[in-house]
Design brief:
The protein is mostly beta strands. It contains no helices and 47 strands.
Length: 555
């Protein structure tokens, strides 16, 4: 016999069988646990016979009964679906419980979509022995509760279906076999007029920008990360000290991100990457030397609204969830594992995500105004106590909530060992503070967010490099932390534990990017960069560093 429960907020359901014939010596009890989406399904090893009374009790996490009911049935191998009438206390407990010969489960049980996007659904049917059941198409039925919100296209064999978001709202998609029903809850959001995309500029040892819908890059090109054959040499390394067009990406590009030796973009709603691929950072399901030609990221041809690149891993927001790929030695993919992946893998438990950031070896995301982080935590950059160890270092292989930031977070930036966020218009940072990159005018690391001095309101954008950070505040660019290469832009080379004004950028800035030891800003219709320039990453046709902003030569 199988049992299926739908719509329950309880923790466990306990079934007890008594009475009937042949007689049983003592009441027999079985239980099933509640899974994601308030759904429980499982096999019950109950004695067959006639006129058995089966009682179901729904228990909360404190083992208190929140709902119960009973039914008298004949227990046999082949059973017609039989509901158990349930009486709830305080509005809690299951909406329905059914007994039968099959269990049905839909994967995934929940989904968050935007209008026009789709979600693949699979129906798994098992028998009373929890073995896969071979049921024909005629026995498995799919239904959407509201076709004006979610439309449904069912496979020929009825074991799968595609749910397509039609309009904002909520709907349930159900799959039923012989009266036993499983449900997937789907939430649909409208397409935003300004989608939560990543920054149109990015910098590291190479820099990139979205220019008139196309991608252009400059700087280090040792492994093809510029997406175009380099014609220069900068300090012995293939490079370009001026922007070059990325091959095949002349239009449709909306966001760009740079890693240590690779680059990723969003183009026409899909993700593409180019450059190094020794850790699977191109996401095309291969591990090789990579190349300068952009390749599509496996499975991410549409629905991508933001992308972020760490040293050797990447993450993207796809239909409100997060998928990551690349190196994973320190848990930076967020999958609870340590193995790298050359193709995107979903980060469990993240829905309605609006922003993503990848640091050297950690990652952060914003959902419903709260920020979570995962990966390396050697300096407190996750902002939450960790108990795991990855490669001998503190870490978390799953997302953890950042202490004190459960609401009001609108932007997040991840550096190599520190993280910053915009919270209710102000800036807070946590993690390493070796060069004052927390901006709180204090010494020492912090595993909890601390306010950046003088930036309590007006923050519009945030960026974090190896050990410096910058913010746009009411159109002006302010930076703090390491200034050994002039990356703070204040015409000096002295570290600052508090924000300093970048020279010449007191207004008009709309986007900011911080790299290894350089910084770039989109301001007043152009791009300006400053800091280290060993590989031409400032884009001014030189390899001389600058402690003040220089215009990038886009023409």
């Amino acid at each position: 016999m199988t049992a299926n429960a739908l719509g329950t907020t309880a923790d466990t359901i306990v079934f007890t069988i008594t009475g009937g014939a042949p007689a049983i010596a003592a009441p027999k009890a079985e239980s099933i646990r509640i899974g994601r989406g308030g759904i429980a399904t499982g096999a019950l090893d109950l004695p067959g016979g006639k006129d058995r009374t089966i009682t179901a009790q729904a228990l909360d996490s404190g083992h208190r009964v929140v709902s119960e009911g009973s039914v008298t049935v004949d227990v046999k191998p082949e059973m017609v679906a039989t509901p158990i009438p349930m009486v709830s206390e305080g509005g809690q407990g299951p909406v329905s419980i059914q007994l039968g010969s099959y269990s049905v489960a839909i994967t995934p049980p929940t989904a968050a979509l935007t209008v026009g996007s789709s979600q693949r659904l699979e129906a798994g049917v098992t028998d009373a022995s929890e073995r896969p059941a071979n049921v024909g198409a005629s026995k498995l039925k799919w239904v959407t509760s509201d076709s004006t919100v979610v439309a449904l296209t069912v496979d020929a064999d009825h074991h799968g279906a595609t749910a397509t978001a039609v309009a904002p709202g909520q709907a349930q998609v159900s799959a039923a076999c012989e009266g036993i029903t499983a449900v997937a809850a789907i939430k649909v959001k409208g397409v935003q007029s300004t989608p939560p995309v990543s920054s149109p500029i990015a910098t590291g040892e190479h820099s990139c920008a979205v220019v008139s819908g196309g991608a252009r890059c400059w700087g280090n090109d040792e492994l093809g990360q510029l997406g175009s054959a380099a014609t220069q040499t900068c300090n012995g390394i293939p490079c370009s000290s001026v922007p070059v067009a990325v091959g095949g990406l002349s239009s449709g590009v909306t966001a760009i991100a740079v890693g240590r030796e690779h680059t990723c973009v969003i183009a026409n709603g899909g993700a593409q990457c180019f450059g190094a691929n020794l850790f699977g950072e191109l996401g095309d399901a291969r591990i090789d030397s990579g190349g300068a030609a952009p390749v599509p990221v496996a499975g991410l041809s549409s629905g991508v609204t933001a992308i972020a690149a760490g040293d050797y891993h990447n993450c993207a927001i796809v239909n409100g969830g997060v998928q990551c790929w690349g190196q994973n030695l320190l848990g930076q993919l967020g999958t609870s594992l340590y193995t790298m992946s050359a193709a995107p893998v979903a980060v469990p438990g993240l829905m309605d995500v609006v922003a993503i950031a990848a640091g050297g070896e950690h990652t952060c995301a914003i959902a419903n105004g709260a920020v979570t982080c995962w990966g390396l935590d050697a300096n407190g950059e996750l902002g939450s106590p960790t108990t795991e160890v990855c490669g001998g270092a503190p870490c978390s292989t799953v997302p953890l909530p950042v202490a004190g930031l459960s609401s009001g977070v609108t932007a997040v930036a991840a550096g190599v060992a520190s993280t910053c966020a915009i919270v209710n218009g102000g800036v807070q940072c946590w993690g390493s503070n070796a060069h004052g990159e927390l901006g709180d005018n204090a010494a020492g690391d912090s595993a909890e967010p601390v306010p950046v001095a003088g930036l309590s309101s007006g923050a519009m954008a945030i960026a974090a490099g190896i050990d410096h950070a910058c913010a746009i505040v009411n159109g002006a660019v302010r930076c703090w932390g390491n200034d050994a290469h002039g990356e703070l832009g204040d015409n000096g080379t002295s570290d600052s534990a508090v924000p300093v004004q970048v020279m010449g950028l007191s207004s008009g800035a709309t986007a900011i990017a911080a790299g290894d030891y350089s910084t770039c800003a989109l301001a007043n219709g152009g791009i300006e960069c400053w800091g280290a320039n060993l590989f031409g990453q400032l884009g001014d046709a030189s390899t001389d560093g600058s402690a003040v902003p220089r215009p990038v030569l886009l023409h």
